[in-house]
Design goal:
Blueprint lengths: L13 H16 L4 E5 L5 H9 L5 E7 H12 L7 E6 L8 H10 L4 E6 L5 H14 E9 L11 H4 L9 H5 L2 H10 L5 E5 L3 E4 L3
Parallel strand pairs: 1-2, 1-4, 2-3, 4-5
Antiparallel strand pairs: 5-7, 6-7
């Protein structure tokens, strides 16, 4: 997620690591050949996936540049696979991974079999990111959303980054914005079938 920082960047959050192992097993069992992670943070989930995906599979990792560098260094300690691609965006307020995703869209063809979104948790960023990755997800591919119920107000973001209150209304601070995306954009689309409640969906047609 955009705001997350850890005192020790190599400390793997237990929750992220456990979900990463489950995700990695799912990818291996379903022969995922092109994996995309949006919001890789310090690389906990990406590490699990890198250790289990077949060597020929591609990984595409998106986040802010500091997190990308942390993730790159972490993955260098566990794998020498050459087909991990890193896409960092700056910390400028209006920059995001959506610019990198748009580059893929402009190439004009689906490229990913599995997309894991654990990014900004912001409707204006991740809502648009979903519209972009929908064009990039192969038919029968999977898209996963982390933190369905997460809110800015219910997290420690407001304490650690008090300027957040200047960016959002109180309603936006209290609203689970990922839930809005899942409920209004994904569940209402007949091309998507829910595999794991509030989290994992399969795109059943182009």
């Amino acid at each position: 997620m955009i705001f997350r920082k850890k005192t020790n960047p190599y400390e793997l959050a237990i929750g992220e690591t456990e979900r990463g192992k489950e995700l990695a097993r799912f990818c291996a069992e379903h022969d995922i050949r092109s994996y995309c992670e949006i919001g890789c943070n310090v690389g906990s989930t990406a590490k699990c996936v890198a250790e289990i995906l077949p060597p020929s599979a591609d990984m595409h990792l998106f986040d802010i540049e500091p997190n990308i560098e942390i993730t790159r260094k972490l993955l260098e300690t566990v794998t020498d696979r050459p087909n991990i691609h890193f896409y960092g965006n700056t910390l400028k307020l209006r920059d995001s991974y959506c610019w990198k995703l748009m580059d893929f869209v402009r190439q004009g063809q689906p490229v990913f079999d599995y997309i894991y979104i654990d990014g900004a948790h912001d409707l204006t960023i991740d809502g648009f990111a979903f519209m972009l990755v929908d064009r990039l997800l192969q038919p029968n591919g999977y898209i996963e959303f982390d933190d369905y119920d997460w809110t800015f107000g219910g997290s420690n973001i407001m304490r650690r980054y008090p300027e957040t209150a200047k960016w959002y209304t109180q309603k936006q601070i209290d609203t689970p914005q990922i839930a809005m995306i899942v409920d209004s954009l994904v569940r209402t689309d007949p091309r998507y079938t829910e595999i794991m409640k509030d989290r994992l969906f399969q795109k059943t047609s182009a």
